[in-house]
Amino acid sequence: MIRTENLCTSYGYVEVLKNVSIEVKTNEIVAIIGANGAGKSTLLRTISGLVKPREGKVYLESQAVSGHPAYRIARSGVSLVPEGRQIFASLSVLDNLMLATNARRGKEARLTIDEDLERVFTLFPVLRERKGQHGGTLSGGQQQMLAIARGLMSRPKVLMLDEPSLGLAPILVDEVMKVIQDLRKQNLAILLVEQNAAAALQIADRGYVLETGRVVLQGGGKELLNNESVKDHYLGSAAFSINQGNPNR
Amino acid sequence: MSPDILLQITLSGITTGAIYAIIALGFIIIFKVSGVINLAQGEFVILGGLAMVTFQASLKWPLPVAFLSSVVVVVALGILIERLAITPARRARGAPLARILIMTIGLSTFIKGGASIIWGKDQYYLPHFTGDKPIFIFGATMLPQHIWILGFTVLIALALALLFSRTSLGKAMLATAENPDAAALMGINVNLIVLVSFALGAGLGAIAGLLVTPITFTGYDRGTMIGLKGFVAASMGGMGSTTWAILGGLALGLAEAFSTLVGFGELKDATSFMILMVILFFMSRGVFARART
Lengths: 249, 293
Ligand SMILES: Nc1ncnc2c1ncn2[C@@H]1O[C@H](COP(=O)(O)OP(=O)(O)OP(=O)(O)O)[C@@H](O)[C@H]1O
Ligand SMILES: [Mg+2]
Prior knowledge:
The complex is a heterodimer of chains A (249) and B (293).
Chain A lengths: L1 E10 L2 E7 L2 E2 L3 E6 L6 H9 L6 E6 L2 E2 L5 H6 L2 E4 L11 H7 L7 H5 L1 H11 L1 H5 L10 H14 L4 E5 L7 H14 L5 E6 L2 H7 L2 E6 L2 E7 H6 L1 H8 L14
Parallel strand pairs in A: 4-9, 4-10, 7-8, 8-9
Antiparallel strand pairs in A: 1-2, 1-3, 1-5, 5-6, 10-11
Helix pairs in contact in A: 3-7
Chain B lengths: L2 H32 L6 H18 L4 H29 L5 H23 L15 E3 L2 E3 L1 H23 L1 H11 L1 H6 L4 H27 L6 H14 L5 H18 L7 H21 L1 H4 L1
Antiparallel strand pairs in B: 1-2
The site of magnesium ion has 4 residues of chain A, from helix 1.
């Protein structure tokens, strides 16, 4: 469904992504794990068009979308639930959800808005209770639910989530992961970025390990979960690099 | 002091304030959506009046047609300026908003030059919309034009309230104002929304100019002063919400009107500058924090 090919992104002179090639298929959850500053958010921001890649391409259903402005990429079906939620605090919960429907194109997609609204309210009943309230008045966990629900309201083919578990109590992390797992069945390609590698790999079909902007390891979710170096570096207390001593770095 | 005079001053303060309020709304909408403080806002006001002079006084078009045409011309100029100057500057890597602010000063000088070529350096006036027979209210007098001004202010306030609370365009503007990146992720064409905000700001400026010219005269170089008044009004309202901009405008109009009580006619303009200085001194951190980033 979505694929990147040798993606390179820089901020000024600082190279953040180096030849990143990943792929996510429909009905698949792919996790990207990596330490602070590895470039996970930059990867998602590049795919979503908020940042332009210096080199490389992003393909959505074999069509190149890299270079398109972010709003057009959103309209072609790529939805990013950004790091830090970034909900519109001054707008109501319902307005937040409805804004995402700007990304819908075509008459049929517009006709299913009410239906989809019902669906996200069923998924997150607390949002229905609070739909008239300003987004800023919600608790952190509720804001995360709103951010995910908003991401779904654009009716995406690809859903990218940037650290949805950040700052949530463990019980909420489980709940959010459960929701993401259930979404897989709905014809979505899900790209999940997490520092909470254990939680992400448990629900992921496949995963990539990102280190200083490079993919250093990839494999099935369970496989990575049992990988010795992943265990050492991302599942225990994060320590040093998998790639230590690699002359190519 | 007789209550008649107090009422008279209050009424005239409110009508002047209403004009400032409309100009302030233009400032606020552009600032909130794009982060740009557009110091060419006063020129939109003047151009509205001058275009009306051409359409109504010279070409003898009927009032409603001339009115709409003037607004359209100024809106078109606002759109042109946004596309040719503001958007390229906003896109330029590391263009801080202070630089764009200076650019808008340059734009205002440019427009002034253009206006002096087209309309010369004369003063112009316009006929009142519906005659100039004073209306007596409890011993004070008002002109029909004052009623038009107040009526349009109320209409504009209601229309904006509807825009921002009921329409998806208005919501998209609010979302863009709060977080442009997140708005883009919602499929909102942020550049288009910024363009709309400039069109709206220019249109509001033009309407203010059209309404006020029959009672104040106009000329190519009047924009700086009236633009500054609008800016002061917007700042008094904290550069934040449309409601506060309207209150800021009314407060400034009243402050000016009552300052004439103290004696000098010239104190009227000085009042605005004093208020501006106080605001810049005490509130610059809060109000203009965003302009710096
Ligand atoms: N706007 C920016 N300008 C300059 N450098 C940036 C910018 N955003 C991120 N960086 C740098 O790029 C690198 C990668 O950042 P990124 O946010 O993609 O990492 P991350 O893997 O998402 O980290 P985290 O786990 O902390 O969210 C970091 O070194 C960061 O300092
Ligand atoms: Mg990140």
